[in-house]
Amino acid sequence: MKQKLTKEEVLHIAKLANLHLTDEEVIKFQKQLSEVVDYFRKLDKVNTENVKPVAQLAELTNVTMPDRVDETRVLKRDEALKNANSTKDGYFKVKSLFNPE
Amino acid sequence: MELYYLTLEEAIKGLKKKSFSALELTRACLERIKSVDKKIFAFLTINEEEALKVAKKADVLIKTSLDIFNQKPLLGIPIALKDLFTSKDLRTTAGAKIISNYIPPYDATVVKKLKKAGVIILGKTNEDAWGHGSSGENSDYGATKNPYDLNRVPGGSSSGSGAAVAAGECFMATGTDTGSSVRLPAAFCNLIGLKPTYGRVSRYGIIAMASSFDSIGHITRTVYDNAKILEVTAGKDPYDATTSMVEVPKYTSLLKKEIKGLKIGIPKEYFVEGIDKRVKVATLTAIKKLELMGAKILDVSLPHTDVAMACYYVLVPSEVSSNLARFDGIRYGNKREIFGDEAKRRIMLGTYTLSAGYYDAYYLKAAKVRRLIKQDFEKVLKTVDVIVTPSSPSVPFKIGEKAKNPLQMYLSDIFLCPVNIAGVPSLNVPCGFIDNLPVGMQIIGKHFNENLLYQVGYAYEQVTNWHTKRPNL
Description:
Chain A has helices spanning about 5-15, 25-40, 75-80; strands spanning about 85-90, 90. Chain A is mainly alpha-helical. In chain B, helix 9 (about 275-290) links the parallel strand 7 (about 265) and strand 8 (about 295-300).
């Protein structure tokens, strides 16, 4: 049985990913994503009993740095803001989260 | 011989001997870019004014004292940076329209290191947007063309970097390799491309694609050139917690070691149906040459090869979906609708595989399969010194040939991406031409064993001429 994503699933994923898709895109991606997800079924037949997943490829532990400010890395306020579309009084301006719409 | 087609090694010698100046070298490259880039479209941003300024300063330093080359080993050498590399005050787009006007306020660690070593940055090269691709066709700005055949792809995602070095526009171009992206352009453009061990080179300041796969590499015309660059870029970086404490050897001084007695493994899973027979022949002929130089050839097996792509395409989009979440138009960039199709596909795939109800079946399962693939490589590399395979199952394909079918495009990485799953290093070395199209082989080694890859590549380079064949531009 071929794994197929439903339209609702595609819309749900798009919402989680903060992407607004057009109707045409939903249809297009539904087909393409379904094909790739179906391809993932190849993994089902691999025996992974007692296999530890790879969480971190470098396999390093306890990599820490001293709790000190490195002055050479500190960005000045105007440097930090200069690529933003919308700023006000030295802050990034964002859409209101708490006002009901 | 035109200045711009010298090797990096010859350029440094020439600067020391005062045969030419850094300014002349830089001008030669900039002229070359003006002359050919409209055909190949390798560059997104050209840094002409600043490059000339830095070149003049370099010449002052060279006049003052020849010892300066000990502190600045790449002084006066014009290079290019893949547009995924954050460069202070120089537009950085990642090949994407969402950040078409992003001017970074800082340099990536690798960029800082290269600048400290004295390079001259000519500009930023084109790429598949965000690194998503194997051909260059996913650039939001238009595809780079292969200098050896303008109707064909140069390989991706470091497409502009490969094309620029092959066309003589610069002496070295940086790249990133998450699943193929330095080695494939190197293979398709007749160049040396290194994917170092994960953790050998700092990822700080390089726009992240898949944080447990991204390896920071570079493309050059010869093995010596490539080794020289790694001496500068490799090393522990406090700003990248995944970088290794393993010492950085002087790679260029270790090149000339003989390969007699070297054990080379040929994985049977890589020489099967579906690979262009001529590519198979070219690779096996190259391996035979290594045997004639004293290497021993052994058949080996990487049994989980057939599930590597599925494993890769679960894990990488998952990490991509997380890394691209920051492009929300607040601190930089435009709204997310501007993402191209491939970016949207990968973001959605990753969101799906990580979502509640699916995480165990997909992401966790793939992370376990990853362990098995990594163990395959580690096991084999205990019995042989290096593994050699073709870099691509085909010659450089025509523009548009694979673009319509995403899954087909993904499968062009089939020999390359298992290397990123395991985190081991791999070097592409040119090994022939088919119908005037470049063919490359990859030399894979143990973790942090780049010096051996260079030795094998160097030995092969000394008895072949592929690397001297230039494109007709």
